[in-house]
What we know:
By secondary structure, this protein is mainly α. The chain has one domain (6-226). It contains nine helices and no strands. The N and C termini lie far apart (53 Å).
Amino acid sequence: MENLPAYVGTIFILTTILTVVLFFNAAGRSKIVLYILLSWMTIQGMIGQTAFLKQTDEIPPRLALMVAPTLLLIIILFITKKGRSFVDRLNLKTLTILHSVRVPVELVLLWLSIYRYVPQIMTFKGMNLDILSGISAPLIYYLVFMRSHIKKSILLFWNLICLGLLFNIIIIAVLSAPFPFQQFGLDLPNIAVLYFPFNWLPTVVVPIVLLSHLASIRQLLKARLIN
């Protein structure tokens, strides 16, 4: 990625760090959570600087193997008693504002598209509307938690909509990657996620954003059932 300006990678690294810090705060500044996140970032960072992810003709793709542990962890959190207890203790306010990191993520994707490392379909100029989640997060946070101008039922609806937008870009990104089942960006595949630091997007940032939505939805649904 020699022709890519250094600021693109720098901004993404800072965005990833901000995502981890916000989730660390949402988890009550748990040292265990921080150690797990930093260890995972380090492992993925080291892998991203090797040729391991560049081998893309295998099924399942090697990148999928790197994402699988985070998905398994999320499943474990929701099917075990201790896991659900952890999820229910996450700070809903911080989980909400965390989604603002999706704005710089989308800007990074736009720059990567300009320098031909991801197809335009993965940006807000294409079929990715995920930037709306990031733009609306501070507003939703302000209206729900600072002014109480809207009910938390709206927060639930917002989380569901934004979760849908997240799944939309995940599907587009997977089908744009140079894997055997690629459907989009055939002339310009999504190769950025095969390189450091952008491999942190599917292995660190997206899992945290996904967990934040799922935890928020669980807490809000649980509160509605109690009330």
